[in-house]
């Protein structure tokens, strides 16, 4: 994946007169195109880092304080991931439905287009790791995946633990690790 820092040549912009009848209007269009194209919040939206959220792990975020798994933890983690500038992809094993108290919230979550469900009979942790490898994504989970280090030696470099502090979900990524 090519980063925006390595891009040196100015990208092709269409001739502004194709969109406007006079040169004054053409200049305004060109300025707007360049402003959007090079604005830090819109430039390379397709190149945002992907973050795989281990939904089966996320429902236990508040354990042991909250004994029953809570599906709303996933939404809180998705918000934290998106606030960090990453695209969230949620991997969930539909089998956790039996331990979730809020059936309506579970059904709402399962209709989210960012959901990837673990195929029946497949190991959830391995599916999370394979998906992260295939998409070159980070993994947001408190699972250390220690049983998989041999097959996926990059786990610790790409795993982001999560914490709930005073009602807020925090991603404990490299910035947080260096601060401690």
Q: What does this entry look like structurally?
A:
This protein has 7 helices and 7 strands, in the order αβααβαβαβαβββα. By secondary structure, it is an alpha/beta fold. The chain folds into 2 domains: 13-46; 48-179, Rossmann fold. The longest helix has 16 residues, at 23-38. The chain is globular and about 35 Å long. The protein starts with 22 loop residues before the first helix and ends with a helix. Residues 1-23, 32-45 and 176-180 have low confidence and may be disordered.
Provide the descriptors you would attach to this structure in a database record.
single chain; 180 residues; alpha/beta; Rossmann fold; 2 domains; 5-stranded parallel sheet; two-stranded antiparallel sheet; 7 strands; globular; disordered C terminus
Task: Quote the CATH topology of the largest domain.
Answer: Rossmann fold
Roughly how much helix do the residues carry, as a percent range? 25-40%
Q: Quick one: how many beta strands?
A: 7
Q: Order the strands across the largest sheet as they lie in space.
A: 3-2-1-4-5
| Rg | 21 Å
Oligomer: single chain
The termini sit apart by: 31 Å
**Which percent band covers the strand fraction?**
15-25%
Describe the structure concisely.
By secondary structure, the protein is of the alpha/beta class. The chain has helices at residues 23-38, 55-58, 72-83, 103-110, 124-135, 155-158, 174-179, and strands spanning 50-54, 87-92, 115-117, 138-140, 159-160, 162-165, 168-171.
